Amino acid sequence: MAVTTGEQPKGYQGFLNNPVILLVDDDQDQLDLFAAVLELQNASVIAVSSAQEAEAAFAQNHIELVLTDINMPFVDGFALIESLRQSPKSARLPIAAFSADTSHIEAEVLSSGADAFFYKTKTKEMINELTVMIEEVARMQ
Questions:
Q1: Residue 29 belongs to a domain
Q2: Domain that holds residue 92
Q3: Contact (CB, 8 A) for 20 and 61
Q4: How far, in Å, CA of 70 to CA of 76, rounded?
Q5: DSSP letter string over 39-60?
């Protein structure tokens, strides 16, 4: 599990409140890429490679947003979302899910309790939507 805070280019603000994002993906290359992109947006990222590690990281940290892959071995993103939604501590936590699966699983993901869904290939769209979600979280605090 890695916890990092990214550096942003001079003059760029990125996310305004330096949110703590739990990032979950079993693909290490994707995990590293998404973590780097989020860090450049001024997020603190806790990156883990399984739902089990995500549960442990959530218990040990103040997480403001979860970003999880759906297709993972052993415990998938659907089960992670369900588990988080059942806990009073995380029932209202913003959760976004992503997948490389192009079989139109968006409706299933959203009905499972996720607040947003992204295809892995649309990183810019993901960052824009996450920015909106993070701003909403900041207003609620």
A1: yes
A2: 2-6+16-140
A3: yes
A4: 6
A5: HHTT-EEEEESSHHHHHHHHHH
Q: What is the CATH number of the domain that holds 38?
A: 3.40.50.2300
Give this prediction's pTM. Answer: 0.78
Is there a domain that residue 108 lies in?
yes
Tokens at residue 66, please?
């979860």
Residue 11 in domain: no
Number of domains in the chain: 1
| Residue 25 buriedness (CB in 10 A; 0-12 / 13-18 / 19+) | buried
- Residue 15's pLDDT is 55
With beta carbons less than 8 A apart as the criterion, state whether 97 and 116 touch: yes
Query: Which tens digits make up the pLDDT trace of 29-64?
Result: 989 988 988 888 788 999 999 999 999 999 999 998
